[in-house]
Specification:
Layout (H helix, E strand, L loop, with lengths): L18 H7 L4 H12 L4 E6 L4 E4 L1 H7 L11 H4 L6 H13 L3 E8 L5 E10 L9 E8 L1 H57 L8 H31 L8 E4 H18 L2 E4 L9 E4 L1 H17 L5 E9 L3 E8 L6 H6 L20 H11 L3 E7 L3 E11 L23 E6 L3 H11 L5 E6 L2 H11 L3 E4 L8 H10 L8 E5 L4 H10 L3 E4 L4 H14 L1
């Protein structure tokens, strides 16, 4: 190859066909256009050749079919004359740019058909290298992409709808969690007074209770704990529904569970009155595969229903049918019974059947929750009923071999009251006066403590500087700012930065606790407070110093 035709090495020549090649491909004559027309007629897409003067030089058969125009009415005429309104500013711009830059361009646009339907067209503008009869021209190849475009838009719309539905579900879930957490907090606060003062009365060695009073306080505590369990159970229903409930499945001895439930229900039965007919103790000498707390919860629910929906002076009969593979517990009442229709809706949440008209209290979630719990334990629950005779509710659980014996839980003993050399200051920040009174009384069980209290976190900052407490007990929900902010400000002050702090809150969600420990609290105590647990925690923190 000679140096005249070869561009310098390393430098790319601008695209330009050689003179020989140009002559071969240029459409310089009308005859060439005719040949070109024959070729383009075999193409299904619409093809036209338009000059920079916007005059048609060529159209193929597909073009004529689509527009309904005859070729002889088109060639030699301008686009605005042939298809008025079709040469939009965008198309005109694309054509002139393509011819000016000698570069192909693609334009996708939409127009409305006479019937109102939308049509999406994709046109490729390919510039000819050489002018045709002195005019620069481009071949326009137009493809109908309506179906493709519609499909893409439908996919996008359905993806957006899916995303919106997901966001809505997540929003609802967050609202539910907030509500649950708020409700838990509101219910636990009064429970703190009931259970806290009850524990104080029961264990007051300076002013011991009489035997009767001991029994009354015991009933208050048993009832209060039951109520607390129910509060937790309502929250559990939410967790069960979202599959976040933890179960501790293990072999459970049936007898103590059933006996405890019957003892809890005895006062309610006396009040109605309804006779509680107990099972043969021998039939209860077996183990089942269950979570004992959850099983108790189910049995309490069935027993309380059997008592509440009974007739005056009726019977509640509890029977146990142990088998090699499964154990069945049957709880029968002598109430009005259920129709077949009612039996069907029994285990649906918030269905209270005909009870809505009666004055029996209940939330209507008990049986629904019981069914969920039984399923989670791998068991079953059901009912047989006869109108005007009574109903029998049964649960079936898998039999289990007894678990290896382990030591019974130690009673909540008070920590040893070692003599402290001097009075040590504990500052409690709590906006609820009853909670503060309870804390004062509970901490009085530890000798040598100086108890200080304020309802205001702002005042707490001042008090902490002056009193130099050895331990801080901080409520979380406070006026002015919350316990987290209070801890942050205490930590920012050199005088108070090293004082350990225990969070004392009615917020009992695992996330609350995790957040508090992460924020730097040494421990997290939930209301209702357990006397023994509180005293242990306080003493532990003071011993560390
Ligand atoms: Mn508070």
């Amino acid at each position: 190859m000679g140096p005249r035709t070869e561009p310098p090495r390393g430098k790319r020549a601008p695209y330009k066909a050689s003179a020989r090649v140009r002559r071969r491909v240029s459409l310089a004559s009308a005859a060439d256009l005719q040949t070109y027309e024959m070729v383009t007629n075999s193409v299904a897409d619409m093809v036209s050749v338009v000059g920079e003067d916007e005059i048609y030089r060529l159209v193929n058969d597909a073009w004529c079919r689509q527009t309904g125009l005859k070729r002889e009415d088109v060639i030699g005429r301008s686009v605005s004359e042939v298809l008025p309104g079709s040469i939009t500013a965008e198309r005109r711009h694309t054509l002139s740019e393509c011819l000016r830059d000698q570069r192909p361009a693609v334009l996708r646009d939409v127009f409305t058909q006479p019937g109102g339907a939308l049509r999406y067209l994709e046109t490729t503008y390919a510039p000819f290298a050489e002018p045709v009869q002195g005019v620069r021209c481009a071949a326009l190849v137009t493809r109908d992409v309506t179906a493709e475009e519609m499909a893409a838009r439908a996919t996008q719309a359905s993806q957006e709808a899916l995303l919106a539905a997901k966001e809505e579900a997540e929003r609802a879930n967050r609202a539910k969690s907030r509500f649950m957490s708020l409700m838990s907090h509101e219910l636990r606060t009064p429970m703190n007074a009931i259970l806290g003062f009850g524990q104080l009365l029961r264990s007051d060695k300076q002013h011991p209770l009489t035997a009767d009073q001991q029994q009354y306080v015991e009933e208050i505590l048993v009832g209060g704990r039951h109520l607390l369990t129910l509060i937790n159970d309502v929250l559990d229903l939410g967790r069960i529904e979202s599959g976040r409930l933890a179960m501790a499945l293990q072999p459970v001895a049936l007898r103590p569970v059933v006996e405890e439930c019957l003892a809890l229900m005895a006062p309610l039965a006396q009040q109605r009155p309804v006779r509680l007919l107990l099972p043969e103790p021998d039939t209860l000498q077996c183990h089942v595969h269950a979570d004992s707390l959850r099983l108790k919860q189910v049995l309490l629910n069935l027993l309380s229903n059997a008592i509440k929906y009974n007739r005056r002076d009726g019977d509640v009969t509890v029977r146990c049918v142990p088998g090699p593979k499964q154990v069945e517990l049957r709880i029968s009442d002598t109430g009005i019974g259920l129709t077949a229709d009612q039996s069907q809706r029994l285990f649906v949440a918030f269905e209270r059947l005909g009870a809505r008209q009666s004055n029996v209290e209940g939330s209507g979630i008990g049986l629904a929750l019981s069914r969920q719990l039984m399923r989670a334990m791998g068991g079953e629950i059901g009912a047989d009923s006869e109108l005007d005779v009574g109903s029998t509710f049964w649960v079936r659980l898998r039999s289990a071999a007894p678990a290896p014996a382990h030591a019974p839980e130690p009673p909540a003993e008070l920590p040893s009251t070692a003599q402290a050399p001097q009075r040590r200051c504990v500052l409690y920040v709590e906006d609820n006066e009853v909670n503060a009174l309870l804390m004062r009384a509970m901490l009085a069980r530890l000798p040598g403590l100086q108890f200080e209290h304020t309802v205001s976190p702002l005042q707490a900052l001042e008090m902490a500087r002056v009193l130099k407490p050895e331990l801080l007990l901080l409520d979380i929900q406070l006026p002015e700012f919350d316990g987290f902010e209070l801890l942050r400000r205490l930590r920012a002050d050199p005088v108070t930065q090293n004082v350990p702090a225990i969070a004392v809150s009615a917020g009992a969600m695992p996330a609350d606790i995790e957040r508090a420990l992460h924020a730097g609290f040494a421990a997290y105590l939930t209301k209702p407070l357990d006397l023994g647990e509180l005293l242990h925690a306080v003493q532990h923190q003071l011993e560390q110093r």
